[in-house]
Amino acid sequence: MNQPTSLSLPPLSEIAALADTAGTVREAAALLRQRLAPLRVVVVDAFDMRAETPVARGSRRLLWFGASDGHCWQVTQDAAQAAGLFLADRPGAAA
Fold this sequence. Notes:
Layout: H1 12-21, H2 25-36, E1 40-43, E2 56-57, E3 61-68, E4 73-76, E5 84-89
Helix pairs in contact: 1-2
């Protein structure tokens, strides 16, 4: 796996709170991409991530770190390996 770029991120609770402010998950992704560049943000379905543990839980959104070798992505709990975030609507959360 390639060495990830060391990214300076705000606390995960702040990232989750920011994602919660957006009206839709796609708007949340756009907002996070703008604020956290060059971090990549990928919208996923929470059902597809059901076996993974989120690194942050907002009231409306879930976030996971994504690590990449430049081609394939995988979920990681290690912030040092994070090249991006996977973002999903929290199941059962009010829109």
